[in-house]
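#onboarding

Welcome to the new folks! Below is a worked example of what a typical request in this channel looks like: someone posts a single protein sequence, and someone else replies with the predicted structure as tokens. Don't worry about understanding the tokens yet, we'll cover that in week two.

Example request:
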Amino acid sequence: MSQQKILIIGAGPAGLVTAKELKAKGIDFDQVEKHVDVGGLWDIDNPGSPLYESAHFISSKTLSAFPDYPMPSDYPDYPSRKQILNYLKDYAQHFNLYQNIKFDTAVKSLNQNSDSTWAVEFTDGKTVNYEKVICASGMQWDPVKPSIPGNFNGQVIHSVEYRNANELKNKRVLIVGGGNSGCDIACDIGRVAEQTFLSVRRGYWFIPKHVFGIPSDVFAETGPKLPMFIQQKIFGILLRVLNGNVQRLGLPKPDHKLFETHPTLNTEILQRLQHGDVIAKPDIKELSGDEVIFKDGSREKIDLIILATGYKHSIPYAQNYFGNPQHPDDMYLTIFSKKYKNLYAMGFIETNSGAYDLFGKAAKVLAGYLDDELNKPTKVEGFNKLIQNENPDLTGGIKFVKSARHEGYVDAGAMKKKLEKLLK
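Example response:
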């Protein structure tokens, strides 16, 4: 086994911005990527990518770019998956990151040695020791597949397996889940299938991508900074005016206040429901042969069920050391392990606005910390106390719903303010 210093695992958005910041500090590192190019999940050809052909960003280009590298001015407000992938490749080229990445190299396992270094085993059988490891391999690779009672004669897939609606022309399709992927896929399929249904367990707030012609996140960012309860009231009224009463479309009333769940930026789904291309259904009770029986007693003949039910926050090759990489009891700011002082995560931020800016600021914090370890060790001692003892409130005054997805969820504004304070 050879001895190295720092390893970055992954060359998606989080891995790239981490490499850029370490390189800016003159810190030596290795970087590996399981795929043949950069981009992570934004490369639809990357095995296991959750992308479908019509996927677009749900935050605007204005607030979604990395620090120091804006998205091209000719990009639309909400770039497509191809444009985001090109942006990531351009970013890697611009900051000369390609030369340091070893592609087609996957990590099998991570194990701590007796001297606290890390033995990194690769799938080719080679093992290398590293003093520090930064896991930037992303969190949308491990699909949640809930068990549904009963027996079903049709096909059941997770949304990770969906690419396009081309072969569904004469099918009756049920999408389970009303998040962004579920609504996007329902709109896709609603145009071509014999009939499309959308099953939701709870009511959702459907946020338009534009408010008065301005991207919704830009509209919110540039408006007056009001207390959260006032924002919830004002924007709640605005949504009711813009969208009307969604209950008349068969959707349940939201059981939570606006902003208390991950935003669903999609009003096209309301148009599909208005046109009958998509029919809203409640939660599933059971499967029965060719039919799906819903909790309101209704039943529908279905050929294909697509589970748009999200992803687990996992790091499979190092799960024993991470627990939940989002959880504040395990990780400080989703970056620093509280138990292992030389183990870090990057890109495991679940938030309600553009994440790339937060990735960039988090990467600057980590790079500054690693630089201080080399050059200002006494400064690091104080920061280590923060890692162990501080649990900052990053909710921005929002009471997020209690669910697996929202465990460790942060408000983008609160997270940005905290990272900027640390950088100072």
